[in-house]
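Quick one, tokens below. Sequence please?
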């Protein structure tokens, strides 16, 4: 039995070009199903009329897909929060880290890496 991922094993008739179009169509439909199953889909009108509720859902961690005429056009998702490290924590880590001799480091890198432009 041929592999199901091969173009010649598709149970349709036609040229290889037609088979490729068929595969592209199936892949697009699978992607659409995945989007519709994994995220809540809202219409453009729901976004416009209920923006406060939509933003509350997004703030709670929900990812929403906005669709126009049934076609997904945008994804509204929470922004990842940045984590700032206090300057004192960085200074403490630097104090505990081993010292690096700059000259020795440079000579070791030069011994390993070819410095010529032509490679």
């Amino acid at each position: 039995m041929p592999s199901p991922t091969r173009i010649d094993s598709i149970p349709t008739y036609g040229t290889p070009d037609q088979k490729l179009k068929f595969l592209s169509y199936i892949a697009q439909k699978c992607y659409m199903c995945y989007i519709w199953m994994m995220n809540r889909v809202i219409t453009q009108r729901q976004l416009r009329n209920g923006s406060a509720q939509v933003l509350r859902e997004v703030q709670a961690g929900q990812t929403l897909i906005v669709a126009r005429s049934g076609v997904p056009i945008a994804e509204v998702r929470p922004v990842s929060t940045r984590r700032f490290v206090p300057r004192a924590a960085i200074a403490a880590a630097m104090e505990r880290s081993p010292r690096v001799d700059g000259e020795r480091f440079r000579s070791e890198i030069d011994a390993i890496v070819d410095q010529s432009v032509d490679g």
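Strands lie at 40-43, 64-68, 71-76. Helices lie at 16-38, 44-49, 51-59, 87-96, 102-112.
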